[in-house]
Write a structure and sequence with these properties.
The protein has a seven-stranded mixed β-sheet with strand order 5-6-4-3-7-8-9, sandwiched between helices. It has a two-stranded antiparallel ribbon with strand order 1-2. β1 and β2 form a beta hairpin. It has a single domain, classed as Rossmann fold. The longest helix is centred in the first third of the chain and has 18 residues. It has 171 residues and is α/β, with parallel strands linked by helices.
C-alpha cells in the first residue's frame, strides 16, 4: 500500500509558502491507518523500547496505537502548563520564538528505553528537545519514527538517536 496517496497537501497553509501535510485522509482510512501502525511496529521492534512517547498533539495519534500494538505504555509529552504535579521540561527554539515541552517527573527512570513517535519531522526541534529531556532524566532514546519526513529541512541530521520515516516529501 502506498501511504503517500493518503496525505492531502494544502499549499500556503497556515501561511504563505508553507505546504501543509494533512494526515486526516490516512486516519480516516482504517486500512491505511492499520498499515501505518504495522510498519511503525516493525521498525520499533528492532529498537526494543520500554515506552512510547508522543509529542503533543499529533504524536498522540500515532504513538498511542503503536504502544497498544506493542503492549507498551504510552507517554504524552505535553506543551507547557498542561500537566499537573512535578514535571521535567525543556525549552527549545522555534523559527518564531520558543516552546516548552514537558513530561511528568515520575514517567521515566534511569535506563528506560524511550521511542519517540510523531506525525512529521521537519527541522527536528521537538525531537531534539525530547532527546535532551530524556537524556537529562537518565533515560535512553532508542529512536524516533515519524509518518512523514520533510527532507529539505534535514532535521534528521540534528538527532542523536536513530530515525526512520515511512514517507518522504522534499518540503
Amino acid at each position: 500500500m502506498e501511504l503517500k496517496q493518503f496525505i492531502r497537501i494544502e499549499e500556503n497553509f497556515p501561511r504563505e509558502g508553507v505546504s501543509f501535510k494533512d494526515v486526516s485522509p490516512l486516519l480516516e482510512n482504517p486500512e491505511a491507518f492499520a498499515e501505518t501502525i504495522a510498519r511503525m511496529k516493525a521498525i520499533a521492534e528492532e529498537w526494543k523500547p520500554d515506552i512510547i512517547v508522543g509529542p503533543e498533539s499529533r504524536g498522540f495519534l500515532f504513538g498511542a496505537p503503536l504502544a497498544l500494538a506493542m503492549n507498551k505504555g504510552f507517554l504524552m509529552a505535553r506543551k507547557a502548563g498542561k500537566l499537573p504535579g512535578k514535571r521535567l521540561s525543556v525549552t527549545y527554539d522555534l523559527e518564531y520564538g520558543t516552546a516548552t515541552i514537558e513530561i511528568p517527573a515520575f514517567a521515566v527512570s534511569k535506563g528506560t528505553r524511550v521511542l519517540i513517535v510523531d506525525d512529521l519531522l521537519a527541522t527536528g526541534g521537538t525531537v531534539q528537545a525530547l532527546e535532551k529531556l530524556f537524556r537529562e532524566a537518565g533515560a535512553e532514546v532508542v529512536g524516533t519514527i515519524t509518518l512523514i519526513e520533510l527532507t529539505s529541512f534535514r532535521g534528521r541530521d540534528h538527532l542523536s538517536a536513530p530515525f526512520k520515516a515511512l514517507i518522504e516529501f522534499p518540503r
